[in-house]
Predict the structure of Carotenoid biosynthesis protein.
Amino acid sequence: MTSRLPLLLAGAAIAAQIVYPLVHGGIRDVVTVLVVALLAAASVTHAAATRGARWTVGLVLVTAGLGLCSEIVGTATGFPYGCYDYSVGRLGPALAGVPLVVPFAWTAGFYPVWCVASVLARGPYRRLTRIALTTIGVVGWDLYLDPQMVADGQWHWCVTDAGLPGVEHIPLTNYAGWFVVAAVMAVAVDRIDRRLDAGTRHRDGVPIGLFLWTWLGSALAHSVFLGAPELRYSAIYGWLAMGILGVPLLVSLLRPRARRPRTHDTHPHA
């Protein structure tokens, strides 16, 4: 049952995301919190099952811990994301104006991207490549997340004309801040991984599946199932950015694996 728990949690998270466009108001707020909690739980339980307790504690401390600190500083000072405020009360208890579910969204977004980047990174610069791909992938995830949550009124920005075409109300400083914070997280988790995991290969079907669902499912949801017109633009931006990892991942998954040559045992069996 323990080995199936991450899969069950991931399935429940996907089911909650499917429900999200069908509900509104307070029920949608509850579903939003549930999605984050289930995605984070799927990531944490999978990491614990495959990489061990110490690695997982490090992951949570880096992603949720640094995420919370950056959000508290961000809402108080505008650095590093820009000037913004949460609609406190809609997403449950808050600390210093930041809903406590928010830092676990960092964990939920980071871990699947990290696992995919670990699959794709190869060669003598594997660690540097993995850090770079993780950073790009996490920023790509936010290209979906921020427009969707702003459209739903979960937070708002002080400026309205400093962003990408179609989503000008989300400033470019937001993505710059995400890039910096995600890069710091990736470097920190890489150091944890070197000390506690040493590049061991893992069965990462659950986080890889969550990555593909987020990449492709969010593009579909923003294009078809969610009503805000700006989400037609975020569907493109998120698909392109996460596709930097997603396209080569699909190629690697769909490519036929070369058969290993058979070895013949020339010694008699006992």
About this structure: Residues 25-51 form the longest helix (27 residues).
